[in-house]
Design a protein that fits this description.
Pfam families: Radical_SAM (PF04055). Keywords: 4Fe-4S, Iron, Iron-sulfur, Metal-binding, S-adenosyl-L-methionine. GO terms for molecular function: 4 iron, 4 sulfur cluster binding; catalytic activity; metal ion binding. The chain is an alpha/beta fold. It contains 14 helices and 16 strands. Helix 5 runs parallel beside helix 6, helix 10 runs parallel beside helix 12 and helix 12 runs parallel beside helix 14. The two termini are about 30 Å apart.
């Protein structure tokens, strides 16, 4: 029996080993235990984020789908029970998870201030992607007054004594590269520790910008979207300047960033018409990036399709593409920072997150479809200007009925305030987790025993 992931310490602190008081109780395999066979036999625990390798004999001792008596003499089953792979027959996994979640939130809550700021330097874009949920946005760019107030707002609202995370979003945020320069420079002058992430189409990502990302903006992760091979990419991106193809620039930008040691998440936007072309793109990327250093390639179903009840077939396509990327040596699954890292959307963690639009308006989620979610602005952040929006942000979260008992609940945004509810989320989580686990097995089989990457999809 080989444990394949270290405990985080966090889980040990709150849960320690599971014990049983009534040894006459029957046990069963937990809903959070995911068995899988790939170059060996493994159990993965969605709650503790551990997985364990079992021998054939140990595997045979696990009565999947049955209840069984607790046997203290059986070291295999005892170990699996202690580590939450097994639970009491009448155990409530949902309540176990929610209890841990409440504890972690209680520990986190006393800390006052914001830890993550999502900043739109601009809502304008140099492309008109055919699928963009922001297609009806009015284009704004931060004025100097707004930029200065953003810095003041961060200085006055950040959590004392803690580094902050900045997410640069848009529009195309690199249109506002000088705005990013200014905000980062001012934060440095004021002694603020920060790291950044950016979502960009990479069309403006030059060598100079890549240097600034590394040296000035503290970028630790870049997401770049590729919609297909060159012809398909150009047809879908619809760049305003259509005098040339921007595909070579996007590929060059990926090299620039990854060569500087910054992880690049290459999102392959998937719809009903481009699956085969995305396979061709994965083949191209395999040749273009033979070392695959700092690259994570994964398909992303368009948000519009995620919400469609008749899009179940697309999740099979999604899983197939994810597996194909993994087979080419790319990490293509869901990677978590820690083994018990509760996944709170920004609406749930509203006390510690903030979204700032180019006008200085404030909300809590970057998936903005209209102005109804803004509750105030950075000039009046102590005043609630839209009571209805604030009430929606601050109301208690409710666990959706469909999420109760789900195997993937601990790895999910599982509450009803998230505007991105996915009809077929369980299928999605399964394909992503399995792909990641296979990648980890391959990595470990190759002798790489380093800790799991901190890149979070």
């Amino acid at each position: 029996m080989i444990e394949r992931m270290e405990k985080s310490g966090l889980f040990d602190f709150f849960a320690a080993k599971q014990t049983i008081n009534d040894k006459t109780k029957k046990l069963r395999v937990s809903n959070y235990t995911v068995p899988f066979e790939y170059k060996g036999k493994f159990l993965f625990n969605e709650l503790t984020r551990q997985f364990i390798e079992l021998s054939d004999e140990e595997w045979k001792q696990i009565p999947f789908g049955q209840t069984f008596a607790y046997d203290e003499e059986n070291e295999v089953l005892k170990k699996l029970f202690e580590d939450y792979y097994l639970i009491a027959e009448d155990g409530d996994e949902t309540e176990i998870y929610m209890s841990f979640r409440r504890i972690l939130k209680t520990v986190r809550k006393p800390y006052k201030g914001i830890l993550q700021y999502t900043i739109f330097p601009t809502s304008t874009c140099n492309a008109k992607c055919v699928y963009c949920f922001e297609e009806n946005f009015v284009g704004y760019t931060m004025t100097k007054e707004v930029q200065e107030q953003v810095v003041k707002y961060i200085l006055e609202t950040k959590m004392p004594g803690h580094a902050i995370d900045l997410l640069w979003f848009g529009g195309e945020p690199l249109i506002g590269a000088k705005i990013i320069d200014y905000i980062c420079s001012e934060l440095r002058k004021n002694g603020v520790e920060f790291t950044s992430m950016i979502v960009t189409n990479a069309s403006l990502l030059t060598e100079d910008v890549a240097d600034r990302m590394k040296n000035d903006w503290n970028i630790r992760q870049v997401q770049i979207t590729l919609d297909g091979t060159q012809e398909e990419y150009d047809a879908r991106k619809c760049y305003i300047d259509d005098s040339r193809s921007y595909f070579p620039q996007a590929i060059a930008a990926i090299h620039r960033v990854s060569d500087r040691g910054i992880p690049v998440l290459i999102r392959l936007n998937l719809d009903r018409n481009n699956a085969e072309n995305l396979r061709e793109l994965i083949d191209y990327l395999e040749v273009e990036f033979p070392k695959k250093n700092n690259l994570y390639v994964y398909p992303g179903l368009l948000h519009q399709l995620m919400r469609e009840k008749n899009a179940m077939d697309m999740w099979g396509v999604h899983a197939s593409l994810m597996e194909y990327a993994r087979s080419k040596g790319f990490c293509s699954g869901l990677m978590r920072k820690s083994l018990l890292d509760i996944d709170m959307c920004s609406y749930e963690d509203y006390e510690h997150s903030s979204v700032i639009d180019p006008r200085g308006k404030l909300t809590k989620c970057q998936h903005i479809e209209d102005d109804s979610r803004f509750y105030t602005d950075i000039f009046h952040y102590n005043e609630i200007q839209n009571q209805e929006a604030w009430a929606e942000i601050t109301r208690p979260n409710i666990l959706r009925d469909k999420c109760k008992g789900c195997s993937y609940l601990p790895a999910c945004t599982d509450f009803d305030k998230c505007p991105n509810e996915k009809v077929s989320c369980k299928v999605m989580k399964n394909s992503m987790e399995m792909c990641w686990l296979k990648y980890e097995v391959d990595r470990l089989r190759a002798g790489d025993t380093s800790k799991v990457s901190g890149v979070a999809f």
